[in-house]
Design brief:
Layout lengths: L1 H16 L14 H7 L5 H4 L7 E8 L5 E4 L2 E4 L6 E4 L2 E3 L9 E6 L9 E5 L2
Parallel strand pairs: 4-7
Antiparallel strand pairs: 1-2, 1-6, 2-3, 4-5, 6-7
Length: 123
């Protein structure tokens, strides 16, 4: 009899190791914002430096003084001497930007507010 109990215990332990999450039928999955809000503050994902990520968007507005560019509805700062503009691999000046242009861009490295342009590729 003890051998039978040991086999049952081992079988239960093996089946418990492979347990998966279960979703209750009839309940909707949580919204993305709820899942994101549930992550702990200071997690590595929220502190990751994604300044090198190449983004793509359309210029929707330009400030009169050229200090800010609105891409896809988000205002981004242009820092004189730090934000670089390129067209076909050659440097160009910020006056080459036009409303409606589709651009590829990065954020400034180490930008705390994540609202400063780093490099902009003008079409």
């Amino acid at each position: 009899m003890p051998m039978h109990r040991a086999a049952v215990v081992l079988m239960l332990m093996a089946s418990a190791a492979g347990a998966h999450a279960v979703r209750i039928v009839g309940e909707q999955a949580p919204k993305e914002a709820a899942v994101r809000a549930a992550s702990p503050a200071g997690s590595s994902a929220s502190n990751a430096d994604d300044s090198a990520v190449l983004r793509e968007g359309e210029i929707t507005a330009l400030s009169a003084d050229g200090s800010r560019v609105q891409i896809q509805g988000t205002w981004l700062k242009v820092l004189a001497g730090k934000t670089k503009f390129y067209r076909r691999g050659s440097p160009v000046n910020a006056q080459q930007l036009q409303k409606g242009a589709k651009v590829k861009y990065t954020l400034g490295a180490g930008a705390v507010d994540q609202a400063t342009l780093g490099v902009v590729y003008v079409p």
